[in-house]
Amino acid sequence: MDKSWFRKLRCGAFLHWGLYAIPGGVWKGREVDYIGEWIQALLRIPNEEYSQLAREFNPVDFDADKLVSAFARAGLGYLVFTAKHHDGFCLFETQYSDYNSMNSPCHRDFVRELSEACARHGVKMGLYYSHCLDWHEKDGCDPRPVGKNMGLCSWGNDWDFPDQGEKDFGRYFQGKVLPQVQELMTHYGPISVFWADCPFPDVTAERARQLVDLVHRLQPRCLVNSRICGVEKMGDYGTLGDNEVPAGVSPEDFPSEGIITLNDTWGYKRHDHHWKSVRAVEGILLDSAQAGANLLVNFGPDGQGNLPAPCWDFLEELARWHRQVGEALHGDGRNPLPQTLSWCRLLGRGRTLWIFPTGKAGDSASLSGVEGELASCTVPVERLPNGDWRLSGLEELAEKNLPAVMTFREEPRYDHRLRLQNGILTLAASQGRLFHGERERKAGEGAFVGPAGETMGDAGHSFMTPMGLRNWGNPQDSIQWTCLLPAGKYQIRLLTRQMWHRKPWESQRKVRLEVEGQCWETLLRPDQREAENLYYQGNYSRLASLELPRDQEVTIKLATREEPEPQAEIRLEALEIRRE
Ligand code: GLC
Predict the structure, then answer these.
(1) CA nearest to 153, candidates 18, 240, 33, 23
(2) Is 240 in the pocket of ligand 1 (CB under 6 A)?
(3) Using N-to-C axis directions, what is the helix angle for 309-329 and 64-73, rounded to 10°?
(4) Least crowded by CB within 10 Å, which of 68, 89, 327, 397?
(5) DSSP conformation letters of 555-573
(6) 198 CB less than 6 Å from ligand 1?
(7) How far, in Å, from the CA of 3 to the mean position of ligand 1?
(8) Model confidence pLDDT, tens digit, residues 517-540
(9) Residue 126 CA, ligand 1 centroid: distance in Å
């Protein structure tokens, strides 16, 4: 399966749109406090009442061409559109449900309109299809024992269809999902992505495989995302959890895709004005790109088909930035060094290295571990006696989020050892080796994709994800890094992150750090909470002061001492070593 187009494009647009856009988060004067497309489940609105929206649905302002051409200009090279979301309403012509937009006053097939616009503007067309949850159907998945979505509402429709004994998921899957996916994969030309969501165990490995096979048989080049199956690793690439940003490296053969909202909802909500700045999104885009991951940026048009005004401003600004950085961003460039740098984001491809300073280091900073004959550099640069490159003129670039560009005569050689960069070494969890006792655990061991797309693991074991170490609670588990450190004094801090959406960082965890025979046991404290990440709060805890008498290669070992309380689950993202 050729996945190179996907990695090369790097970013795409997510389009969440359906009947839920009409109420826009408000039902009979009641405002919902969670994502807009969940309004029916949040307020337990009976199908009889909710489906009245289909009789009103006439989005006269929806203009596929205008949307897709704006996405194309902004460098969002593929589109994923909600052909059917959890409410079951289909935005395409189908023989397998009357509940579709051709039967609404508009009589329109939006998958057709968008796929034609995509073909005109060179954007790859992809489809989101809720293959497990379907609130309109009695037989749609109803995973009651799993508990509630965010503790707020049922996952499946248990308000219209309370009798679980009467439900037959297989009937829904065979009678609606497979035939509709067949329609979607045959009627609209090339489809590049099939995006499934919320795979509860009713989607057995066998059913998921059937669906994947169907997609691949009808569209051999179409990539399927990992949310297709929750019990086995499947699909062609891994979708991260909602609004997660990768902190490690995405594997070549199973690329990652992050997905972000522009405000706090996927489907339109009239009262959500909590917009991210274009700068913040550019940052997430670069964080993803340097980790080798894609990013889908979400848009939620209103009930008339209009995008909220801030989205248009956003698209225009993104297009402007894209004209300047598109060459760096596309083409599967990524950070060629083994560590992320605290003062910049890096993208390397061929002879070129794009360095996007973040402003954290001030106007100049040094880069280590890059060897080669420099042909040109867009900022003043000096080669230091130790081989580092000292770049300056960075502040202005940081302000505009533009890169310094270093071009070498030949592809430079990158040092793959972990070493200080401008006085700081960030050891991402995913760069470390994971052990259970003496035994090394392989990458991906014991991990699989959970119902909302999150990575899950076997109970009682840690496992590595592109976001860091999860389930980090077994005192037998440790993580180890080997790195080069010059003689000197260092402060060591640990970055951990809350794994639940919007819960504060808190922890009672004690960790044990070992460096070359020295050992520290520390209770993690909220020493410095991160301000930037809106959804999953990060925190730096001070662990130790280290003094090294000579330059040396050191092995660093970190283990947790106590089982954390399940409510306060935090994951280990990185260890930071900072020269004093
Ligand atoms: C969640 C929600 C869904 C949304 C999706 C986007 O899984 O259930 O409404 O479409 O995230 O990733």
Answers:
(1) 33
(2) no
(3) 40
(4) 327
(5) EEEEEE-SPPPGGG-EEEE
(6) yes
(7) 24
(8) 999 999 999 999 887 767 889 999
(9) 16
Work out which ligand 1 atom sits closest to the CA atom of 38: 9
Question: In this structure, what token pair is assigned to residue 43?
Answer: 């307020």
CB of 546 sitting under 6 A from ligand 1: no
Displacement of CA 78 from its chain's centroid (Å)? 15
Q: And the tokens for 241?
A: 């959890």
Question: How confident is the model over 11-68, as pLDDT tens digits?
Answer: 999 999 999 999 999 999 999 999 999 999 999 999 999 999 999 999 999 999 999 9
More confident residue, 464 or 389: 389
Atom 10 (ligand 1) nearest CA? 266
The encoded tokens of residue 474 equal 């077994």
Instruction: Report which of 345, 299, 297, 351 is spatially closest to residue 325, judged by C-alpha positions.
Output: 345
C-alpha span between 109 and 197 (Å, rounded): 22
The best mutation among 87, 146, 157, 198 to test binding of ligand 1, ranked by most ligand atoms within 8 Å of the C-beta, falls on: 198
> Of the candidates 239, 242, 344, 331, which has an alpha carbon nearest to the alpha carbon of residue 286?
344
What pLDDT, on a 0 to 100 scale, did the predictor assign at position 249?
72
What is 434-484 written as a DSSP string? EEETTEEEPTTTTEEE-TTS-EEE-TT--EEETTEEESTT-TTEEEEEEEE
Res 189 pLDDT > 90:
yes
Between CA 161 and CA 141 the distance in angstroms is: 11
The distance of Cα 46 from the centroid of its chain, to the nearest Å, equals 33
Q: Whose CA is nearest to atom 4 of ligand 1?
A: 266
Separation of 534 CA from ligand 1 center, angstroms?
17
Claim: this prediction has a pTM higher than 0.90:
yes
